[in-house]
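Deviation from plan, reported transparently: glycinamide ribonucleotide complex.
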Amino acid sequence: MKVAVLISGRGSNLQAILKAENNKKLGNAEINLIVSSNPNAAGLEFAKNYNKYTIVLDPKNHADKTKYDSKLKSILLENNIELIVLAGFMRVLSHSFVDYFKNQIINIHPSLLPAFPGLNIHERVLDYGVKYSGCTVHFVNAEIDGGPIIAQRVVEVLDGDSPDSLAARILVKEHILLPEVIKKISEKKISVNQRRVKVN
Ligand code: GAR
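Because the crystal trials were delayed, the predicted structure below was used instead.
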């Protein structure tokens, strides 16, 4: 299964995916393409280290979101990509894009969705005072962070947590969960029925 990973920054999830592939822990998935929306993304270094084909798609070089998304779509189609993994990709994809690739785009989000979608997640988690947070991998649909949930991992919120300390503990779980989900999808062990996702 040909996979593209889309990033915008640090790329630690990308690194975890590439490491899993290297260790033959990614099932039938092959990371064929890395797309970064940011020419200065630190994650591009990981792509280089693993000799991966990389494309920078800078929004600054595209007139608008429609043009950006249609360029992205043509790159993905040219490369016969079957699964699109958003790993810290900080752009909202257009409705027509996500409809076209229905159930072929997954995203990792650092909270237990549907709680705390959007941005500044850990600050809001701490302000609200919830006792557990975590991470979610979900299919991407037109609703921001609102697609069918594939898998979640729970992390306890500690009394002394700062947004950074909580983010760091959640990130450890993200790095395990995202490659696991990619592996399962590549082995056709995941099926979707409306909002219910079955993982075998
Ligand atoms: C991760 O924590 C990911 O869950 C989050 O951005 C971080 C990217 O880190 N994604 C979102 O907030 C998406 N809304 P990374 O670049 O080191 O993988």
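Residues 2-199 form a domain with the Rossmann fold fold (CATH 3.40.50.170). We consider this an acceptable substitute for the interim report.
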